[in-house]
Amino acid sequence: VVEDLVDDLLAVLQENLATSFFPVLHPAIGVGSTFEGWSPREYDAVYRLLVPLKPPHGHTFHLELGTARQTPEKNSRIRVELECTCMRDQLVENRLCFLHHPQEELRRNPAASLLGTLCTGSYLDAVKTAQWFQNLVRSAWREEPPSRLYSMKLLPSSRSCKLQLTNDSGRNLFIEMVFGVQQGDSDIFLSSHTTEDTIPSTMWAESYAVAEVKFFRHIATQAPHDTFHLKCLQLYAGILVDTGISSYILKTVAMHLLNTIPLANWSRTEFLMRLEDILQYLHSCLEDKRLDHFFFGNENIPEDIILPPDFQTAEPINLLQHLVEDQAAHARAVCEFNEIQD
């Protein structure tokens, strides 16, 4: 239901933007625990979708990747440049090259400038992009609602578009749309969504969410029908709510184990053993203050997941590096783990 509704909404927005110089919206990709099938919040789950952005006619996106690979979400920027389209535009009636005739195009459509509207300097601004998209959604829903079964409320969000949809019976659906620019042809994106509160608005975080959801889909196609790996994840995710051990750490532990323990061994009859495996793996990681990011330096990635060429040869990123640098945080994490274990 959620994906169909978002597809319908994006179709309306795409039609409204067809002749503009704003980013081209591509079909949304469901990501995160809800679409991976293990969300601990069954009744008020947030459905997060990534909306890929492509440059409009006469523009290019240049990704300036951050170098802080010791942290998983290295911060990068997206530089927007104009490109000459004179030869192509000669074939299209009433269209001018934006690079060589910017004033003429702006006179025709004063709000058409991507650089002037959604950028700070020459860089795509995540906050301005989110505000622009929110305004589009508000107008589209008022004029041509994708669904008449739901009323829509926009929730506050500076770097994404959060919707609360309510049907006649009072049931709520919570949807968050984040924005992403693809790295080449890979499943890695620069995303407007970030876990940092003070990140500059022109910084975009490297996101592995599409690759992760593809990993879980790959597992689903290979695993026997009675495989209980998602139940294991869901159970522990519920237990870890409100602790300092994030669900992302838990998911990474599970992904490493799914890549090493045969899928036939994740059945109902071995459910308790797999729960113990996850617990012991997590305990070992906390003791060593080290958990390798799943996609860096890992030679056993499924072939249908497309990564940038340098990922396989990269040094693994330690997701628990903060525990190495902060002894108090490490002590709290160990204490919380012991409480869970007890």
Automatic annotation (TrEMBL):
Q: Does the keyword Transmembrane apply?
A: yes
Q: Which residues cross the membrane?
A: none
Question: What InterPro entries does the record tag this protein with?
Answer: ITPRIP-like, Mab-21_HhH/H2TH-like, MAB21L/cGLR
Pfam families tied to this protein: Mab-21_C
Chief subcellular location equals membrane
Listed GO CC annotations: membrane
- Name the family: Belongs to the ITPRIP family.
State the name under which the record lists this protein: Inositol 1,4,5-trisphosphate receptor-interacting protein-like 1
Identify the species of origin.
Charadrius vociferus (Killdeer)
